[in-house]
Amino acid sequence: MGLGKRRPTRARSGVSGLQERRREAPPAKGAGDDAPVLTLQGLAHDGRGVGRTPAGKTVFVEGGLAGETVAVAVHRTRKRFDEAHVREVLEPSVDRVTPPCAHYGSCGGCDLQHLSLAGQHRHKQAVLRELLARQGLAPAGEPELLAEAGEGYRRRARLGVKVDAEGGVHLGFRARHSHRLVDLDACPVLLPELSALLTPLRDCLKALEAPRHVGHLELLASDVGETLVIRQLREHPDDTYRWRTFAEARGVHLARWVGREAPTFEWLTPAPALSCRLAVGERELTLGFAPGDFLQANEAVNARMVATALAWLSPLSPGEPVLDLFAGVGNFGLPLSALGARVCAVEGSAAMVDRLGDNAQRNGLRVDARQADLNAAASGRALLDELGPRTVLLDPPRDGAEAVCRSLAERPVPRVLYVSCDPATLARDAARLVQAGYVIQRWAVADMFAHTAHLESMLLLEHPDAGRRCEGASIDG
């Protein structure tokens, strides 16, 4: 039997079924009868309910909401707290709703579908407020909310593929806290055109000669249609033909990464010019990208974030110098350039810098696209010294922009707009800037991933002394 072929039937699969219910773990020793019923006081940052036993021990309860009385099953005991899940809701919260997905509770893709969207928004605003407060920061007022529809919004997704011991092929997302897959026939948070591909994809996988060669699948929606990217451990010519037949029948673009240690990328159908549109006032920009490039999953919320950034930074003087760090394919830098700013956009990836430059040219914009290691303190200092920007925009990965913020503390600029996908690192970095004299002027929460505990956030910080130093200086500095 060749590597990757189907194997004979064995006793266990280890893959959850469509309607799998959570296996209820027995209460841990010492945590059973003394705390079977809890009244939950609030929500933890990850969306779990928080209660206390009669003895005062904290319990984090999956599936529980603030204000509810629930019977719980404790599945993990620790020294300072226990972890549990809801066995029965005795007194529900007014914010409890019926989850829109039949797989909720087994699939790990979403963790807040039992909480109303309004409740999710309040929770995420509270999380940002608390994380900033832990760093001694207390912005005025309430954070702005940037949110759109809770379903049919996700334009990219990675799906796991697994062949079980019986030879059954499974396609879906991971179960919570597990490497097991939950088979999906549909997903309400995916764009409908992507969700409609799930069942046909599973059928195609079942027809392959070597389904074990497939590691995962990526689905991506763009202005030119749907794209399927296969992560394949090795090539199988007959299966390549099957994939091409699938793509032709479904009208999707098809590409793959092949290999284990150093995979290579290739298109199996004619290479499309993948792009997405972004409105800037009366103008519409086109941003090209390639599979593997970072692209915000929620197009509508991303548009709200870009519009908010432009509103917060307006008015921009003609030719005003703006430094766009962690610039990606130009999601923020190109709109700023379209409004007349003189943008220097910096990325760590050479391929991304090329894409950014191509996007500027495609839209008739002048952007200075550069490559630099923004985790190195010297890079930030050199850029600030050379360009003397009035505005710095940061959109870093989850690790944040600690090195850049050190440089901004040492060499203040009038305005810093920080866009973050991790509120904890945002709070850490913002604290450093505030200690250096910056003041938080605006803040916002963006619900990029509805029905999950993930949140994006934005802060606008201004440094009054840096602004006064810039007054009277020429734009060309």
Automatic annotation (TrEMBL):
PROSITE patterns from the UniProt entry: SAM_MT_RNA_M5U, TRAM, TRMA_1
Domain of life assignment: Bacteria
Enzyme class, first EC level, given as a word: transferase
UniProt catalytic activity: uridine(1939) in 23S rRNA + S-adenosyl-L-methionine = 5-methyluridine(1939) in 23S rRNA + S-adenosyl-L-homocysteine + H(+)
Keyword DNA-binding: no
Residues covered by the TRAM domain: 28-88
Key word rRNA processing present: yes
InterPro entries: 23S_rRNA_MeTrfase_RlmD, MeTrfase_TrmA_AS, NA-bd_OB-fold, SAM-dependent_MTases_sf, TRAM_dom, U5_MeTrfase_fam
Listed SUPFAM superfamilies: Nucleic acid-binding proteins, S-adenosyl-L-methionine-dependent methyltransferases
CDD domains: AdoMet_MTases
Active site: 421
An MF annotation (GO) of this entry: 4 iron, 4 sulfur cluster binding
Any one Gene Ontology BP term: rRNA base methylation
UniProt binding sites for S-adenosyl-L-methionine: 296, 326, 331, 347, 373, 395
EC number: 2.1.1.190
Signal peptide feature range: none
Residues that, per the record, bind [4Fe-4S] cluster: 101, 107, 110, 187
Basic residues: compositionally biased ranges: 1-10
Keywords: 4Fe-4S, Iron, Iron-sulfur, Metal-binding, Methyltransferase, rRNA processing, S-adenosyl-L-methionine, Transferase
Family membership noted in the UniProt record: Belongs to the class I-like SAM-binding methyltransferase superfamily. RNA M5U methyltransferase family. RlmD subfamily.
Function of the protein: Catalyzes the formation of 5-methyl-uridine at position 1939 (m5U1939) in 23S rRNA.
Protein's name according to its UniProt entry: 23S rRNA (uracil(1939)-C(5))-methyltransferase RlmD
